[in-house]
Amino acid sequence: MIKVQHLSKHFGSVKAVDDISFEVQEHENLILLGTSGCGKTTTLKMINRLIEADGGKIFINNKNVTEQLPEALRLGIGYVLQNNGLFPHYTVAENIAVVPQLLKWDKKKIEKRTTELLEKLHLSADYLKAYPNELSGGQQQRIGLARALAADPAVLLMDEPFGALDNVTRSKIHAEFKALDELKRKTIIMVTHDVQEAFELGDRICLMDKGKIIQDGTPAELLFKPQNDFVKEFLKEQRLLLKFKTITVKSLWHLLSNEEIKGLGPGILVNDKDDLWTVLERSTFFNAERLNMMNLENKEMKTVSFESLMSAFYQYQKGDSHE
Amino acid sequence: MNEHQQTLWEFMRQQSDKLAEQTLQHIGLTFISLFIAVLIGLPLGIFISRRKQFSAGILGVAGVLQTIPSIALLGFMIPVLGIGPKPAITALLLYALLPIIRNTYTGITGVDAAIKEAAVAMGMSKWQVLFKVELPLAMPVIFAGIRTATVITVGVATLASYIAAGGLGEFIFGGISLNNTNMILAGAIPAALLAILFDFLLSRLQKLDSRKLKLAAFSLPVILILLSSFYLIPATYATKLKAGFTPEFMGRQDGNLGLQSKYGLHINTVVISDAVMYKAAYEKQLDVISGYSTDGRLKAYGLVVLNDDKKIFPPYYAAPIVREDALVKYPELENTLNLLAGKINDSVMTALNYRTDYLHQTPERVAKDFLIDHKLFKPARNGNAGVIRIGSKIFGEQYILANMYSMLIKGYTDYDVSTKTGLGGTKICFDALTNNQIDFYPEYTGTGLLAILQPQVKVVDSLTPNRDATYQYVKDQFDKKYQVKWLKPIGFNNAYALMMRAKQAEKLNIKTISNLKRYLESK
Ligand SMILES: Nc1ncnc2c1ncn2[C@@H]1O[C@H](COP(=O)(O)OP(=O)(O)O)[C@@H](O)[C@H]1O
Ligand SMILES: [Mg+2]
């Protein structure tokens, strides 16, 4: 869907982006991850031509972006900024309607779409007439997202979209983000410097440093097959947490065997798509002694204890094997 | 002139037609200029917000324009644009430009970069970004600029009367020259009220929320055009010749009023400042002007004085007038000032004035040359027995006289001198004298009689033809009323006079004011 080939950009002597190439499949969510100043924003802005590249090519749907009018190109690409960039002189409704207006949709259609989006983003219709400064940070960010989604573009570019939010709000929005059906139909490139966020939301991650892509792969690949020390170092602090979040029950399935567990403690039902973090959270919450595992593919059931699950996890790590 | 002391209210009622006309002209002038200034300033402001390399240059030029003194700017325009509304509007709009350009520029460049980027990223074109995002967000700042420009323009528009463009300045400057406080206030109060009113209205507009501001932004041009239409080109009736009279001349018995009542002279007249009147006559913008018979520009611009055959212009013999307590305090002063008595006749004075007004020699040099030629000059003694403050009105002749007196005092006495030259008009000069701000200044008998004493018409009529009687009368009256002493006359008579271009007067065979009247009435 999106192909980036040998893309470069320098500002004076600073090589902000240095000959990078990657591809994003349709409906995939690619994360550009890296520390501040590594060239993520510059890369993103070259895709909708807010910044013109010095070298290299970008194709969206096999069309070279530089061969289109920038305005027309941008009308087909949703864009979400870190500090939402909402128009302070427009109401919420007017902000959401910006792109449909530019595309000259009729009034009814715009209204319908606006209400629909507000509903999906769990915002009350009372806000339609409010101005951005009357909303909380989280609400503003949702409106920013709604504005980008309004005309239903196939591609969505997001630059640290949740970067300015507090932790509680951010994890709430993460959950909503994952659940939003609209986004499942989009090809998304999202920029973040937050490793957890990248692992939580990304299908694939490009880890960048000094204008170059160091590793391009799934979260699990980055975690378990780090290409070099930089990648290892980058993920080190949150390694355990990330592993819990990356490894699913399914990947441990072959290491688990059915057990007889005595006692009256409660059990919980877990399916093979859940990651270990989720299982952990849920079992702690219910104080569970039995984990009833269900393989959704072949309907096989295994009941295991929490301890067996953990030992399977360590065994898995030692083998360093994964799907 | 007035039979009893008129109140301001009576004056305004009596002059209500003129007041209304001047006020409307003033509003009209202000808003035509403002409208054009917005039309030019807004796009220029937008332009320099796009091409920053031009911003310093354009803001610099607009800034410099604003520092040019208004009268000078008006003067520059006469050769190009003539007199009347065109140069007035041009000058006013030039003054209004800076705040409009500057605020448009700051307003637009002040819009949050992230918001502009968002607008571009949404797919807006350059123009859409400008009209949908930048201008609306910059609007409060732009409004503030227009507000500043409005207040400046209302103020400067008073000067439009200098070049025959009407407005409340006619009363203000007429009143200053005529020593008529009511007339000054009748112009100044409405002008101040207009400034306050427009400032208030625009401040309300500025406080509107952004939604209503959109409406306001659209209605503003309409309002501006509407208010502009108040500007009626100063009412005139067509005659063969066009006259330009100073505001002072317009309101005086020994000026336009006398021309109408005693000669029955009716001529298409505009009100214009003394500073630009001669030039306008030379440039053929005007045919007949009210001047002073010793004015150097008479010679410079090839003008001739029409003979006052019915003697309506009283004699204007010049003499220093001094506060009597100053004469006591500085005993040598009187004799020193009288050194000049009888030394300068009309033609000498005209020649001296010519040197300053036309040859642009400094009054100081002209004064010194004269004193040396007449063996009156002595080098300064640099004494410190007290400081004598000399005043002068704001024209060349007075500057020359002030300089002569200054040199005489320094050379013949141990007093030092400070000069306060360029006091706006008779009223300002005379008030400065009686309020002990200056010790003496050169005054004219006719002015003392008509502008300061203002006796009944009968008295004026009986004195006017006689030079000595007039001098004696003002001398006695000033002594009695103000404790101010008229010293001996210097010699020349700088009376009012009607003048025309010499060539035209010759061609039309006009030598006297009666000739002029006859010519105007001939078919
Ligand atoms: N407009 C610019 N002018 C000069 N240097 C820039 C500009 N934009 C970015 N840079 C530099 O390019 C590098 C990459 O910046 P950026 O893409 O914004 O990084 P990131 O988004 O990863 O934090 C940084 O060193 C930054 O200072
Ligand atoms: Mg960035």
TrEMBL record, chain A:
ABC transporter domain span: 2-235
InterPro entries the UniProt entry points to: AAA+_ATPase, ABC_transporter-like_ATP-bd, ABC_transporter-like_CS, P-loop_NTPase
PANTHER family (UniProt xref): OSMOPROTECTANT IMPORT ATP-BINDING PROTEIN OSMV
GO biological process, one term: quaternary ammonium group transport
A molecular function GO annotation: ATP hydrolysis activity
Family, per entry: Belongs to the ABC transporter superfamily.
One family name in Pfam for this protein: ABC_tran
Source species of the chain: Mucilaginibacter frigoritolerans
Protein name as annotated: Osmoprotectant transport system ATP-binding protein
Keywords linked to the UniProt accession: ATP-binding, Nucleotide-binding, Transport
From TrEMBL, chain B:
Entry's family note: Belongs to the binding-protein-dependent transport system permease family. In the N-terminal section; belongs to the binding-protein-dependent transport system permease family.
Annotated localization: Cell membrane
Keywords, alphabetical: Membrane, Transmembrane, Transmembrane helix, Transport
Protein name per UniProt: Osmoprotectant transport system permease protein
Predominant subcellular localization, coarse grouping: membrane
Membrane topology: Multi-pass membrane protein
Residues annotated as domain ABC transmembrane type-1: 23-202
Source organism (scientific name): Mucilaginibacter frigoritolerans
Signal peptide start and end residues: none
Classification lineage: Bacteria, Pseudomonadati, Bacteroidota, Sphingobacteriia, Sphingobacteriales
BP terms from Gene Ontology: glycine betaine transport
TM spans (from-to): 27-49, 56-80, 92-115, 135-163, 183-203, 215-233
Any GO MF annotation of the entry: transmembrane transporter activity
Entry annotated with the keyword ATP-binding: no
Cellular-component GO terms for this entry: ATP-binding cassette (ABC) transporter complex
